[in-house]
């Protein structure tokens, strides 16, 4: 609280006048009076004189003169408050949204380098029920699976897997190549790797020779 504000408050209370009544006599808002008394607003000399007349007290005595140094300190403090509050609010919002949104990486089939990100909502650190850190996008590199409506440059949302899931469409590594295939288990030893670029093609593989990398569960594409 500034010394001017303190004196105004003391004089007002001594005269039995409310902030609302003083504001009305000065032709200002009640909020302004409150901010002057609490030191959040700086009052000029002409208004000090007007307050002095209304409250019948001298607020312009030598002890009440606000020096340039004091004025600058108050102005600096007010500026800091104005600059700090929006930053604090933004940080709160960033933290709040950071807890429900996650940057999901986009990879090519090698998974060696992030090509970009898309934000997805999380719930209890999961995306669509899958652990958030295991979910990623895969950019489709060819038209091997057009029969499944999966085309080159589409984005497939996936999650990491270590074992083959029957009747699923997965990114697998087989014969030294990474490909998207539908997997159908024939038994505990062999599986069919199915592609469809307009006509269906199947390969029989030993399950132990197929490295499961990710299961695709959603396709996104531009119209």
From TrEMBL:
InterPro entries assigned: Cro/C1-type_HTH (IPR001387), Lambda_DNA-bd_dom_sf (IPR010982), LexA/Signal_pep-like_sf (IPR036286), Peptidase_S24_S26A/B/C (IPR015927)
Classification via SMART domains: HTH_XRE (SM00530)
Keyword Thylakoid: no
Pfam families, alphabetized: HTH_3 (PF01381), Peptidase_S24 (PF00717)
Protein name in the entry: DNA-binding protein
Transmembrane feature ranges: none
Gene Ontology terms, MF aspect: DNA binding
Keywords: DNA-binding
Organism: Clostridium perfringens E str. JGS1987
Domain (HTH cro/C1-type): residue spans on this chain: 8-62
């Amino acid at each position: 609280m500034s010394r001017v504000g303190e004196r105004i408050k003391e004089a007002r209370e001594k005269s039995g006048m409310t902030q609302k009544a003083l504001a009305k006599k000065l032709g200002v808002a009640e909020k302004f009076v409150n901010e002057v008394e609490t030191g959040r607003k700086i009052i000029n000399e002409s208004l000090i004189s007007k307050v002095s007349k209304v409250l019948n007290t001298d607020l312009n005595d030598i002890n009440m003169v606000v020096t340039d140094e004091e004025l600058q300190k108050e102005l600096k403090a007010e500026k800091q408050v104005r600059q700090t509050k929006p930053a604090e609010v933004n940080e709160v919002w960033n933290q709040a949204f950071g807890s429900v949104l996650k940057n999901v990486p986009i990879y090519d089939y090698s998974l060696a380098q992030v090509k970009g990100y898309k934000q997805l909502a999380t719930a209890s650190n999961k995306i669509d029920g899958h652990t958030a850190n295991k979910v990623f996008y895969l950019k489709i590199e060819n038209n091997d699976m057009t029969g499944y409506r999966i085309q080159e440059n589409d984005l497939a949302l996936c999650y990491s897997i270590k074992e083959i899931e029957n009747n699923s469409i997965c990114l697998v590594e087989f014969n030294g190549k990474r490909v998207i295939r539908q997997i159908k288990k024939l038994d505990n030893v062999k599986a069919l790797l199915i592609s469809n670029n307009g006509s269906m093609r199947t390969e029989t593989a030993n399950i132990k020779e197929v490295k499961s990398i990710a299961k695709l569960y959603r396709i996104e594409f531009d119209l």
